[in-house]
Amino acid sequence: MSVKIIDYSELPLLFQNIEYSIPENVKKIREKIRKADGFWLFTPENNHFSPGVLKNLIDWLSRPVSKIEGQVLNVK
What we know:
Elements: H1 24-35, H2 52-62
């Protein structure tokens, strides 16, 4: 098994005005997830839930970014 850590600290907040012209750092993370067989999420608890930055990452991964490219979390 090969494990890679994805740094998503520079990920912009999901904002629908930029959703269909996604930023370059979002494209890079989506491509890494697309190529992976699966992924794990590790995070500290924040107020009995996951931190907002993790929710933001999941939002970027779970939404289609064009009419051709859908979300990248299918079958992961």
